[in-house]
Amino acid sequence: MRLFEAILDANHRALAGDQSAGLHVADFTGELPVVALTCVDPRLNRFFPGALGLPEEQFIWLRNAGNIITSPLSSTMRSLALACAVKGGREIAVIGHTDCKIRRTTISELTERFKALGIERRQLPENLTDYFGVFASERQNVIRGVDFIRQSPLIGPRIPVHGLLVDIQSGQLEWIVNGYDALDRPSAAPAGMRLPTLGGVVGDLATGAGFNMGEMKFPESKIGEMASTFIQSLSAPKPEAAAQSPIGAPPAPPPTSSPLPPPPARARVVPIPPPIRLHPGDRDRRR
Ligand SMILES: [Zn+2]
């Protein structure tokens, strides 16, 4: 039994009242962790990762409003790609949910809600459906998201991409797209379909044609890296200044004309917030 076959089996058995239903995580170490994309709906907080039977450390949770993916190279897709490449995600699941408010909100309602927030219609893109990726069916939205991931040049071909729907009332999972099936086929793309490449899509956006990603020169440093190196070089004591300072004396303050704020003398330790406990009365009110 593969990972998601076992997850669905355990989920359904648990909902049927089987007290012993669960996932034997040790049997699936080669298929974990799972990268999941869900909606931001707070009603989902109680279901994950428990509805999948996964421990927290094996569940990489990405969320956006409506679990929407707008293109094979969208911002969400880049997060999915990094979750696999950097965090080691082995399988991806797009998990929609029933009764999604994004599906229930019409474009005219959306326009009114933006207006109530001080955003006029003319300030928004012309095609709000395309721009936000709003959908009329939770199920179709999941299928569309899975298709985009499979088409993405950022996601490795050996990573199974599943589509599921969770019942917002019960937590029951429905397996809409079986990611293992697609792996057994040579290509998920229909005949004649041109899959996007980084160069092609960026080129289409940037110039319309003739753009070659390989010809572009990108800086090798990360965003913010150069600024941080600059700050560090400013904060390092100059050799002659260090020689003149008595041992243990605090470093001289930076000149007040410096355009950058003085860096901290040592890495600041961020305190861990104390655990928040709900008072029994609060917990009851929430129900
Ligand atoms: Zn939702």
Q: What key attributes describe this structure?
A:
alpha/beta; 287 residues; Beta-carbonic Anhydrase, Chain A; five-stranded mixed sheet; 33% helix; globular; binds zinc ion; 2 domains
How would you sum up this structure, described in words?
With 287 residues, the chain is of the alpha/beta class. The protein folds into two domains: 3-193, 3-Layer(aba) Sandwich (Beta-carbonic Anhydrase, Chain A), CATH 3.40.1050.10; 197-233, no CATH class. It is 33% helix and 10% strand. The chain is built from eleven helices and five strands; from the N terminus they run H-E-E-H-E-H-H-H-H-E-E-H-H-H-H-H. The structure holds zinc ion.
Task: Give me the secondary-structure topology.
Blueprint: H1 3-15, E1 34-38, E2 59-63, H2 75-85, E3 91-97, H3 101-104, H4 107-116, H5 128-132, H6 138-151, E4 161-166, E5 173-177, H7 179-184, H8 198-206, H9 225-235, H10 239-244, H11 280-286
Parallel strand pairs: 1-2, 1-3, 3-4
Antiparallel strand pairs: 4-5
Bound molecules: zinc ion.
Zinc ion binds at residues 39, 41, 66, 97, 100-102.
Query: Looking across the biggest beta sheet, what order are the strands in?
Result: 2-1-3-4-5
Bound chemical compounds: zinc ion
What is the helix/strand order? HEEHEHHHHEEHHHHH
Structural class: alpha/beta
CATH class of the largest domain: Alpha Beta
Number of domains: 2
CATH homologous superfamily of the largest domain - what is it? Carbonic anhydrase
